[in-house]
Amino acid sequence: MSAPRDRNGRHPRVLVLGGGFAGIGAAHKLKTSDVDIVVVDKHDYHTFQPLLYQVATGLLEQPAVGHPIRDLVHRQANARVHQDAVTAIDLDAREVHFSELEPLTYDYLVFGLGAEVNFFGVAGAPEHAFPLYTLADAVRLKDHVLKTWEAADRRPALIDDGALNIVVVGGGATGIETAGALAELYHGVFTKDYPDVTPEQARITLVEAGPELFPMFKPDIRAYTEKALAKRSVEVMTGEVVEAITPQRVTLKSGTELKAHTLVWGAGLQGNQLVQSLGLELERGNRIGVDEELRIPSHPEVYAVGDVAAITDQKTDQVLPQLGSVALQSGEHAGETIARQVAGKETKPFKYRDKGTMATIGRGSAVVQMLGGRTMKGKAASLAWGTVHLALLPTNEDRAKAVVAWAGAGLTHQREARITVET
Ligand SMILES: Cc1cc2nc3c(=O)[nH]c(=O)nc-3n(C[C@H](O)[C@H](O)[C@H](O)COP(=O)(O)OP(=O)(O)OC[C@H]3O[C@@H](n4cnc5c(N)ncnc54)[C@H](O)[C@@H]3O)c2cc1C
C-alpha cells in the first residue's frame, strides 16, 4: 500500500537531524519507503568517532573517519541532504529552525544530534583542554602535538618546562585508547624522529577521578589494562580530580601540579545542548527519555536516537551506553518503524543486539566483555574490535582504507599522517 499524499501531492516528510550513525541508519532504512527524507547536519561529512584518536595520533588521515554525507544517500532517490546548523526545534508546531535554511516542518522527526563534551565546570578546560569528539578536535590535537615537538626541538628549554608531557583525563574508553595511542606515537615514532629526547622528558599521564580504570569492565580486564598501559610507559593516577587547567599546567584537587602543555579531555559527555530547549524533562547526562519504540512519549512523531537518547535495554532494564552500535541500531529501528507506520503496518519495540563492550589499548592489545560476562584480551580481542569497528564504518572504501593503515602501522610503526598543513 502506498502512503497517502497530502493536499499538495507530497509524501510524508521525515526530517533527520544529524548525519551520525543514528541519523544515517534511519535514512537508510527508509530507502524504499514512500516518504521524503531530509537529512540536515552542520558538517558535510559523517564522523566515525571511534577512530578519532587514530587521526589525532597520525595513524589515519581525515577522510578515513569523515565520509561525505551526500555520498551515503547517493542511491536514495527519496533523500536530500543540507549542510546547516539546527538552531531551534518547536515540537508543538512540528517545525525546525536552522542557521540559514528556511524553517522546515515535518511529519516525523528523527532527532540524532549526538552528544558533546562536558567539562564539568573545570576552570580553564573550555579554553585550554583538547577534547576528542569531532574530526576538528582530532586534527587540532594532532597539530598541537606535532607543533609542540617541533618547537621543543628548536628551543630545548621548553622540554624542561614539561612541553612534551601529556595529561589525558578520563579512565574510560576514550581516555585509555587515546593514552595508549599517544604512547605508541611517542615511543614507536618520536624516539626516532627526535633521538635526543629521553623518555623521561616526554611522559604521558592518565588521570582518573574514580578508584580504578574501566569501572564498567570485570577485574581481569582492568588488571590487563593496567599492565598494557604500564608496558607503554603510561603513568596512571586514580582517585585524582582535575581542578584547573592552564596552557602549561594541570592542577589536581589534591594540590599536585603537573607540568604539561597538552591536556586531552576524555572525561565526560552530555546530550547535545539543543535538548535543553525542548521543554522536556531530561534524563541523566542531558539525554532524552524515550518509550520502547524510541519515541518521545509526549510527541510520538519524534524519535530520539543514538547518543542523545536515554534508551532502556529491554533485557537488562539498564540505560544503554553511548556507543556506535547503539546509535546505529536505534537509528535503524526508528527508520524501520516510520516505514512501517507509513505503510500502515504494526510496529515493534526496539531490541538491542549487544556486540560486547570493547576498547583497544594499542597494537595487538584490546579488551572485550560480552553480554554474558565472557571476556577476551590481547590479540583475539584486537581482532574482535577490528571486526566490529570495520562493520560500523559506512562504506567498503572506508573499511579498505582503515585496513591498509592498520596493517601498515602494525608492521612498521609508521604514522604517515603526522604532518601539519597550514591553511
Ligand atoms: C573518542 C570517541 C571514541 C569512541 N569509541 C567508540 C568505540 O570504540 N565503539 C563504539 O561503539 N562507540 C564509540 N564511541 C561512541 C560513538 O562514536 C557514538 O556513540 C556515536 O557516534 C553516536 O552516534 P550519533 O549518531 O548518536 O551521534 P554523532 O555520531 O555524534 O552524530 C551527530 C551528528 O549531529 C551533528 N550535529 C550536532 N549538532 C548539530 C546541530 N546543531 N546542527 C546540525 N547538526 C548537528 C553532528 O555534526 C554529527 O554529525 C566513541 C566516541 C568518541 C567521542
Observed structural traits:
five-stranded parallel sheet; six-stranded mixed sheet; 26 strands; 423 residues; alpha/beta; globular; 11 helices; binds flavin-adenine dinucleotide
Q: What does this entry show, briefly?
A:
With 423 residues, the protein is α/β, with parallel strands linked by helices. It is 31% helix and 24% strand. It has eleven helices and 26 strands.
Topology:
Layout: E1 13-17, H1 21-29, E2 36-41, E3 45-47, H2 52-56, E4 66-68, H3 69-72, E5 79-83, E6 86-90, E7 95-98, E8 104-105, E9 108-111, E10 115-117, H4 125-128, E11 130-131, H5 135-154, H6 157-160, E12 166-169, H7 173-193, E13 204-208, H8 219-231, E14 234-238, E15 242-245, E16 249-252, E17 257-259, E18 262-265, E19 269-271, E20 288-289, E21 295-296, E22 299-304, E23 309-310, H9 324-342, E24 357-362, E25 365-369, E26 375-378, H10 379-392, H11 396-412
Helix pairs in contact: 1-9
Bound molecules: flavin-adenine dinucleotide (FAD).
